[in-house]
Amino acid sequence: METGDVGPGLCCPSFNQDSTSLAVGTKTGYQLFSVTSVDKLDCIHESTETPDVYIVERLFSSSLVVVVSQSMPRRMNVYHFKKGTEICNYSYSNNILAVRLNRQSLVVCLEESIYIHNIKDMKLLKTLLNTPSNPSGLCALSISHSNSFLAYPGSDTIGEIIVYDANNLSTMTMIPAHDSPLAAITFSASGTKLASASERGTVIRVFSIPEGLRLFEFRRGMKRYVNISSLSFSPDAQFLCASSNTETVHIFKLEQHSPSGDEQAPSWSTYVGKMFTAASSYLPAQVSGMMSQDRAFATVRLQMAGQKNVCALAIIQKLPRLLVASSDGQLFIYNIDPQEGGECTLVQKHRVSGSDKDWEETEKAELMEPPQACQSYAATVAIPTSGPVTATLTGYSEDGGAKKGEVIPEHEFAAGPVCLDDETEFPPINWCRDGSGRGKGRRP
Description:
Blueprint: E1 12-15, E2 21-25, E3 30-34, E4 42-47, E5 53-58, E6 64-69, E7 72-80, E8 85-91, E9 98-101, E10 105-109, E11 113-118, E12 124-129, E13 140-141, E14 149-153, E15 159-165, E16 170-178, E17 182-187, E18 193-198, E19 203-208, E20 214-219, E21 228-233, E22 239-244, E23 248-253, H1 268-280, H2 285-292, E24 298-301, E25 309-316, E26 319-326, E27 330-335, E28 342-343, E29 345-351, H3 356-367
Parallel strand pairs: 24-28
Antiparallel strand pairs: 1-2, 2-3, 3-4, 5-6, 6-7, 7-8, 9-10, 10-11, 11-12, 13-14, 14-15, 15-16, 17-18, 18-19, 19-20, 21-22, 22-23, 23-24, 25-26, 26-27, 27-29
Helix pairs in contact: 1-2
Subcellular location: Preautophagosomal structure membrane
Organism: Carassius auratus (Goldfish)
Keywords: Autophagy, Lipid-binding, Membrane, Repeat, WD repeat
């Protein structure tokens, strides 16, 4: 969400890297919620010290949170919210449009430059200057320990994607993803897949990383162009969800179709499929491509349209869920049937921001709608719940300080999960980029 989008009653939601936490920036400050239960949404932390927050990002489930306010849109503040202290702050030459975090890096995106910091000590490692104009701050940072990749637009006129190695600080590849400028990009949890959508919003493509080969192509729709605002993989990268300014969220299934239907019993769909495959070889590439594209495996019809929202796929209480956080301060949780797909079932909604009047009006409107039938989810336990294993960053306890561990020297990457004492990590830093020395004592 851009700096001018925080209006009365609106909020700026964002999920953390593994979708276990929701951060919400508002006119009065920001809040952090735990998203580990369907029926209960726990508020972990609330701050009213900094108003007009339009960026708030939490590092996994640690105590580190990054905040940017409209009152000072060129300054990034990094807080240890459990201890109530500021770790450091940095000021930049222009407005901050996006911040991305993983266990190694903190990335700050401006309209024409990108800054990469070492998240362990916040030192600036690399500045990418004169990047193509990127007024929406579009960028993605993978969360894998071994594949720490950064993706950002390589052009402001066509949909080129630059993939940058944030560990080795070098450009890896350029992917010609779309004919139109990019609107959304995201990595899978392992960093081996990258999904993208253009400003037209009709086609979503998935590429292999680092090779940049096209793996999948999904068609959201052909009737109208839409603004896709959010893309997100499931933890196992078997599903991909996309939300836009319309009332529909699409979920696509990433499965390789059998190259031949010979092993299957003959059916009408088999014959039709073969017919289209044969016909596509005689058609122009553009038409042939549209015929080969897969449509949505599952869909959700939201109770609102025209509002910016973010979506995420997560396993909550051992079942696959779709999470949709809207800019009017609501969190919707849907069940997904991973075998059959179809229309997803709304199982819970939570209020995270907004006035009582706005909420009452929403409640009245929803009472007028017929209730949705519940679906059976006995088959969902077949989905593997263990996603890719990623190493924990040295110096950051994933649980906010409940576990203790030994300190590893600075600049040394951890070979496996390591947790440190929350009382000694995130020490206040006495310097900052603008030289003001404001790095101590402020409460988040």
